[in-house]
């Protein structure tokens, strides 16, 4: 155990369970009694002060009327600047559009670029709302399972290429950093995926919402930044919501590489898919412009927590323990590490340990064998959750 593993931060560790239970969010609102929630991807931490200050100032100064943005939504230029400074990815603000959330962006792109019956490739396990979106929109979901090796999670790129060719896929939904495994794809792996997309003329929808929570020494590489061909076939979806705990602001952005698709999107009735709120824009801009210190402190806390969960899993499963995520705050591990082997591991853990996790069959592939633990909470609550899980064994 290192010094970093024992450090605490009052901004993130002085949480009161009574306050969390009395809040407005679904994470704690879905449970009752003494159940501890560690399921949905919301953090328990307070909103960054720079965000609450900016929103409060805007409300006090009458910002709830119709916004005046003569040069277009300021999110567009701010996002382009953030990609340039963080990743060296040079994009035009004119190719950026905003949506109320990332899932809406995904569904809009699928609606415009595909038709019912078209095949969409996706690497599984994967985020359940993404999988459900493909299915409920009448598209054919083509799963390409990840491989669990002795060294950790590995994308089966040969399997992905084969699935795309066999089923005539039109689209690849890429999730990087990956949810739920937390794996960060390397530049070489992304280059192989780009080659597959080029050979089969795929539109790539790249969800990169967890990118800013990548843990050192891993590095996030925007998929569209690889080369001109990749950029021209990729729509990148992201938001400040995961990295700054702002899901309720309902604000996301999309960068459109394909010119035809952007023109098709802009030809739609302007309010058909809704518009982002003024407060969502103000909060996002505040986070991006002034939230670096808060985010740096958050990164240290999340790294500490993932190390703590990794030590617990190693104690329970030894060398068979599933690896810590390389990004984010969601830990994907086999239910058997807890002695749980039923068809519904989430329900079994809830009933026996009074902890609500996520996982199971909605994630696809072998999801029924896995659980997903949200670690974005105080050190004390992490310890209590781990103690309850340990008692299952």
Automatic annotation (TrEMBL):
Keywords: Aminotransferase, Lyase, Pyridoxal phosphate, Transferase. Its cofactor is pyridoxal 5'-phosphate. Belongs to the class-II pyridoxal-phosphate-dependent aminotransferase family. MalY/PatB cystathionine beta-lyase subfamily. This is cysteine-S-conjugate beta-lyase. One of its GO terms (molecular function) is cysteine-S-conjugate beta-lyase activity. Its EC number is 4.4.1.13. The keyword Cell division does not apply.
């Amino acid at each position: 155990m290192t010094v970093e593993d024992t450090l605490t931060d009052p901004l993130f560790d002085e949480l009161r369970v009574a306050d969390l239970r009395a809040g407005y969010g679904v994470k704690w609102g879905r449970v009752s009694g003494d159940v501890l929630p560690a399921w949905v991807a919301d953090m328990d931490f307070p909103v960054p002060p720079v965000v609450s200050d900016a929103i409060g100032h805007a409300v006090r100064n009458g910002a709830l009327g119709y916004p005046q943005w003569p040069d277009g939504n300021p999110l567009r230029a701010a996002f382009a600047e953030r990609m340039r400074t963080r990743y060296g990815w040079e994009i035009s603000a004119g190719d950026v559009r905003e949506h109320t959330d990332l899932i809406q962006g995904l569904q809009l792109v699928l609606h415009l670029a595909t038709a019912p019956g078209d095949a969409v490739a996706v690497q599984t396990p994967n985020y359940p709302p993404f999988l459900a979106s493909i299915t409920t929109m009448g598209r054919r979901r083509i799963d390409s399972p990840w491989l669990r090796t002795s060294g950790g999670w590995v994308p089966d790129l040969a399997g992905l290429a084969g699935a795309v060719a066999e089923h005539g896929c039109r689209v690849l939904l890429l999730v990087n950093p990956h949810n739920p495994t937390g794996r960060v794809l390397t530049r070489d792996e992304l280059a192989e995926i780009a080659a597959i997309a080029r050979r089969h003329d795929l539109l790539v929808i790249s969800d990169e919402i967890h990118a800013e929570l990548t843990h050192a020494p891993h590095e996030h590489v925007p998929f569209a930044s690889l080369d001109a061909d990749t950029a021209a076939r990729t729509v990148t979806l992201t938001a400040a919501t995961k990295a700054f705990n702002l899901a309720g602001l309902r604000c996301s952005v999309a960068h459109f590489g394909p010119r035809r698709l952007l023109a098709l999107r802009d030809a739609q009735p302007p309010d058909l898919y809704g518009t982002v709120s003024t407060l969502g824009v103000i909060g996002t801009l505040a986070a991006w412009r002034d939230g670096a210190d808060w985010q740096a402190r958050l990164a240290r806390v999340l790294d500490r927590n993932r190390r703590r969960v990794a030590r617990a899993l190693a104690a329970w499963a030894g060398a068979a323990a599933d690896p810590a995520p390389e990004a984010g705050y969601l830990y994907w591990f086999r239910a058997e590490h807890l002695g749980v082997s039923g068809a519904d591991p989430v329900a079994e853990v809830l009933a026996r340990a009074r902890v609500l996790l996520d996982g199971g069959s909605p994630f696809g592939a072998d999801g029924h064998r896995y659980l997903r633990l949200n670690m974005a909470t105080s050190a004390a609550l992490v310890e209590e959750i781990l103690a309850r899980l340990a008692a299952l064994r």
